[in-house]
Fold this sequence. Notes:
The protein has helices at residues 22-28, 363-369, 373-380, 383-388, 391-402, 406-410, 415-428, 435-449, 457-502, 513-519, and strands at 34-37, 42-47, 55-59, 62-66, 73-77, 84-89, 95-100, 104-109, 114-120, 126-131, 137-142, 147-151, 156-161, 168-173, 180-185, 189-194, 200-205, 212-215, 221-226, 229-234, 240-245, 252-258, 263-268, 272-277, 283-288, 293-298, 304-309, 313-318. The chain is α+β, with helices and mostly antiparallel strands.
Amino acid sequence: MATTFKRTLVRQYPQSGEKITTDTLYWKNLEVPVTKKEYGAITHIDFCPVEPHYFAVTNSTRVQVYSPISLQILKSISRFKEVTYSGSFRNDGKLLVAGGDEGIIRLFDVSGKTLLRVFKGHQRPVHVTKFLMDRLHLFSGADDNSVRVWDIPTEKEVVVYEENKDYVRSGIASCASQDIILTGSYDHTVKLFDTRISESVMTVDHGHPVESVLMFPSGGIFLSAGGNVVKVWDALSGGKLLTTLCHHHKTVTCLTFCSNYQRFMSGGLDRHVKIYDVSSYQVVHTLDYPGAVISLGSAPDDSLVVVGTAEGLLSIQKRKPDGEPVKMKKKPVSFRYALKGKTYIPNKGDHVVEHKRREHLAKYDKYFKRFEHSKALDAALSPINRRTKPEIPMSVLQELIRRSGIRAALAGYSETQQTIIIKFIQRNISNPNYLPVLLDVANLVLDLYSDQLGQSSMVDKAVQELKEAVDMEVKYMKTLYEMIGMMDTLFSASAHTDQSLLNGQASPVNLTPSAAAQNT
């Protein structure tokens, strides 16, 4: 009895690139973004801390309040004559404050869009307006280089700070204290203020114009963004720099927390939003957008991610409901195997005769079944397989080697076929999973057709490109071996130093004559 034909096993190799982690799956569980075009650049996005977590979008001469359910505008506050900035909710969600190019701060009742208070005192545009935790005060930062704290009931200034030497463009109030505020300025400094004191209590140098600041709820650690870096500072240690994050290649413009303060996000002019783990400060996921990101916000429960761009595009992404079934595209079936019209369900005692479906073989397997090895290789090296499925030609080459038919399959190739196999080797020889097999195949091809070199410009060009690719791989390998050698030396020296310290032996120190004389 003849045995059934064994199909060619197509081996799947792990793809290099993004690692699939729980964070990757979590942040990929977002729906297709809803994009809205606004009149001007979207300068600020702020989520209401209380449910249902409305969000305010500041752009042009208005502040628009969106519904997180319908993603439609609920209220549009347009009591501004010039460009407005920093529309922010109070922590109870009842009031909203915003500044603008007029140098005036306006306070609104969110429910009725009623203008409640007007604060005047700044001489230049006001870019920062935030409420303090006591709900009775707010602070502002402006292009007149000043930071001012205001009493809401009386509309009067409580304290004015004029320490900055350039624009104040970012700020945040501490969640741990009703008296602590943090500001960032274009003079490269981040300043911590206590509203009970008439001057700053801490100043750190970010090294770039500061575009955004963020403070953890405990108030012990804060972040600053400017240039292409995000810096993490320890406030309890007097402003000690903990780490510098350099994952953007253009200016970082905005920061915000997400995932219940377990993650934070940064957006930049490079059109990327990076998501970091607060425990390790490592990037766990990246979101891409069609424009330069200058504002972003995330709902407290991560149900929404909203991003604003300099081009006036507002991107809103909802999180998919948990447990939502994945819709799979149904494969077309032959009428012989479909169950249309067949409603009878066999009983327990029925004898069921199942029809065995005919096995469909791939084209190269059909040639293998007829022992036509050369045609099998040609079928595997089809254009689509060479471009998108290199694992199929690789599996066929391995099967030919196993059958000892690789030489016969490659013999008698035309110029076009020689060029195809050589270019396939050149394109995939840098893949370490394919390297051993492709080296053997390349040697065999050169052995078979070396006497024909110089007779076809097409084949000669392909061989030259293969040589350049191999030379480049050899160069990379030499560089890597040199780096491994240097790292081994460093690790060995470090281990020797640690062992000496454990044994209580001091490392030898070379002293100059003057230093030795001073020691004696």
